[in-house]
Structure to design on (707 residues):
């Protein structure tokens, strides 16, 4: 069921460990409030949180970090070299500790001119240049050999054989040993220590701060998976380095037990907002880039927001925040200056000028009222005339749930000038397979996308089937995100289709477009905007001479699958739908079922704020998956639902399909066969074998010529 990971297989064979009893672990697909732990009384005082803190640390150690040794009773420093660089003292030191003093850690100090004591800017050897910036700002900078290229943490495995801490936790432990040493440096103000690091060093910085309360300020910079991107919000469904990918691609980083939760993140007894909560009330600034390929600015924002209640309990809600920057995973001197600005703000009260930017600002500003639409019900269709009435009622319900749309007009658009190369590179697009060609397009309300076809198809003008790819919620890369191996839009173009791929609002090149959407359009919804864009995409495709306007399909994954079903229910020009990993049907999406509840669509993403009015009364949602499918009938529709999917339950999808088959059977002779549900074994992901199922379904549909 999982891709091969030889190091993990060897560990499991040697240890004999079995997976936990997942049935005994509560399923929770959202980030719980750390102050209301499942199965325990709410936490209302700082003293109660301190007790909870001591319970959380062993949980994190067992399933995530591994168990670290206690602090050594003695850390000795040997000065190897010291130079004076224009008044700044550069001192190289080797620390000794542990059994028989066999532990070794290289440390370097950069002490600015003056008597001190100075606040400390602590980071890893890899970020030596960051230390240079801090020194010129009046900090004593300290770097330690706990990063790639200069890593003394590997020797800790042999030094402490009874402890199983992973590489990232070992490096975090080295940060604490450096702090042991700093207490003996008279120029260092050990009450004002700031720790920072980027990427995997950002992970260790967050972990060190969570475990070592001597760290006064922490700045995890783009720590991504295993750092400040909650595993429930950064996975196969919300594409990024999932638990499965993280533990396979970087097996030494964390404890091997974490891999047991691949595809079962909802069963994790913790998440990374708990890690941030352990830092409270000490200041924490999480750095994140809008289109970083190794993190999701949205997942980081949700993780920070979920930890805020603990900071608020301490009266320190302003001490946990995010720092956004434009671009990808790269760093810059300007970014580092901003991090030092934060340290100045905390240590000296200097102003911090960066305005807060948070995804909650894209949330609806008021609680939505229930739309006035009548409830559609696919279970009561009998004569064929009922199907038409049901379709009309379903479409009215979709429009009502989508909110009040602002005025709009048709703009078919078409082929446009290519995307700027730096933008294409940032979003990982603009390339195609050998034997393919691509064209940039603009349509609707300025939406841009790309067409992928076989080479020569555009010049020939011969009509071919069209496919519109509706991507999952890949915040960093939009339509190009979420696939290991060949992207699905590239693979579909090899099936002699003209494939349109574009970013939906809030993703890829359009992340910031969604940030203030609900401030500008308080009565509309992201669902409504997405459906308007989808209709505009069909308008554009029908006007391209090399696309057959009668054979335009939609293919989607997760959120994209939900969008494809909605779009096809409204627009009969869409010839059919292939939907992979359709989320839980609305009326069955109760919090108790563990899939996340309507709140993730109403508040967290938030797709349709009006759904908030049905939380606790889900059965009253005006339409659901059976009605969407019935509105698509008799056009072919294939749902692919992996057997393990924390975002939906196969039995509920099967029930919806069985209900909708009545409408299919009434609409056309043999129509029930046009609605298919496939349930391949394994957990839901946008991986090669499931993409192969999508391609097989597409080939079968095109061969049947049912458009």
């Amino acid at each position: 069921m999982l891709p091969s990971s030889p190091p993990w297989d060897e560990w499991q064979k040697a240890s004999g460990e079995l997976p936990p009893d997942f049935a005994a672990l509560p399923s929770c697909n959202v980030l719980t409030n750390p102050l209301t732990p499942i199965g325990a009384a709410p936490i209302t005082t700082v003293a109660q949180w301190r007790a909870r803190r001591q319970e959380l640390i062993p949980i994190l150690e067992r399933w995530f970090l591994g168990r670290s040794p206690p602090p050594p009773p003695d850390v000795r420093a040997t000065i190897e070299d010291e130079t004076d660089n224009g008044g700044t003292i550069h001192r190289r030191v080797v620390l000794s500790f542990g059994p028989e003093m066999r532990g070794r850690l290289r440390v370097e100090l950069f002490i600015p001119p003056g008597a001190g004591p100075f606040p400390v800017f602590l980071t890893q050897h890899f970020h030596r240049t960051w230390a240079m910036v801090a020194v010129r700002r009046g900090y004593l900078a300290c770097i330690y050999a706990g990063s790639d290229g200069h890593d003394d943490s590997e020797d800790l495995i042999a030094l402490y054989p009874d402890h199983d801490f992973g590489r990232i936790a070992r490096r975090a432990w080295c940060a604490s040993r450096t702090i042991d040493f700093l207490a003996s440096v008279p120029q260092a103000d050990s009450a004002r220590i700031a720790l920072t690091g980027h990427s995997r060093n950002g992970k260790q910085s967050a972990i060190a701060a969570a475990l070592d309360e001597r760290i006064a300020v922490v700045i995890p910079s783009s720590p991504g998976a295993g750092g400040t991107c909650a595993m429930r919000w950064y996975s196969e469904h919300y594409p990024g380095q999932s638990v499965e990918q993280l533990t396979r691609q970087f097996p030494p980083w964390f404890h091997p037990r974490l891999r047991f939760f691949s595809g079962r993140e909802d069963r994790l007894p913790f998440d990374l907002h708990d890690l941030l909560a352990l830092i409270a009330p000490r200041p924490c600034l999480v750095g994140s880039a809008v289109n970083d390929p190794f993190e999701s600015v949205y997942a980081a924002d949700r993780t920070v927001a979920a930890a805020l209640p603990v900071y608020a309990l301490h009266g320190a809600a302003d001490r946990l925040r995010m720092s956004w920057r434009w671009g990808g995973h790269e760093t810059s001197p300007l970014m580092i200056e901003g991090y030092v600005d934060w340290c100045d703000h905390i240590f000296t009260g200097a102003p911090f000028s960066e305005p807060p930017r948070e995804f909650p600002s894209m949330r609806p500003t008021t609680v939505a009222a229930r739309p006035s639409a009548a409830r559609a019900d696919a279970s009561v269709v009998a004569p064929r005339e009922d199907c038409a009435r049901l379709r009309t009622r379903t479409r009215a319900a979709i429009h009502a749930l989508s909110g009040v749309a602002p005025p709009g007009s048709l703009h078919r658009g078409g082929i446009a000038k290519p995307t700027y190369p730096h933008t294409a590179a940032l979003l990982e697009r603009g390339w195609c397979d050998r034997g393919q060609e691509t064209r940039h397009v603009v349509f609707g309300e300025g939406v841009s996308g790309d067409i992928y076809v076989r080479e020569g198809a555009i010049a020939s003008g011969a009509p071919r089937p069209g496919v519109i790819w509706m991507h999952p919620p890949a915040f960093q890369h939009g339509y190009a995100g979420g696939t290991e191996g060949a992207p699905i839009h590239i693979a579909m173009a090899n099936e002699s289709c003209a494939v349109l791929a574009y970013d939906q609002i809030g993703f890829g090149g359009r992340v910031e477009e969604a940030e203030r959407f609900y401030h500008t359009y308080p009565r509309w919804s992201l669902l409504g905007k997405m459906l308007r864009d989808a209709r505009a995409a069909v308008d554009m495709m029908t006007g391209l001479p090399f696309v057959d306007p009668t054979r335009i399909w939609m293919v989607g994954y997760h959120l994209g699958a939900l969008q494809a079903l909605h779009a096809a229910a409204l627009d009969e020009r869409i010839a059919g739908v292939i939907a992979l990993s359709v989320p839980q049907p609305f009326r069955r999406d109760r919090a108790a079922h563990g899939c996340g509840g309507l709140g993730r669509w109403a508040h967290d993403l938030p797709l349709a704020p009006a759904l908030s009015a049905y939380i606790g009364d889900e059965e009253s949602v005006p339409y659901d998956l059976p009605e969407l499918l019935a509105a698509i009938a008799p056009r072919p529709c294939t749902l692919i639902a992996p057997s393990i999917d924390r975002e939906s339950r196969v039995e509920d999808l099967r029930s919806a399909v069985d209900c909708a088959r009545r409408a299919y059977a009434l609409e056309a002779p043999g129509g029930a066969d046009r609605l298919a549900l496939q349930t391949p074994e394994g957990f839901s992901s946008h991986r090669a074998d499931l993409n192969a199922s999508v391609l097989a379904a597409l080939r079968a549909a095109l061969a049947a010529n049912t458009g």
User: Anything to note?
Assistant: The domain at 378-704 is CATH 3.40.50.1820 (Rossmann fold). The chain has two domains: 48-73+115-123+163-174+191-357, 378-704. The longest strand covers residues 188-198. The chain has a mean pLDDT of 93.
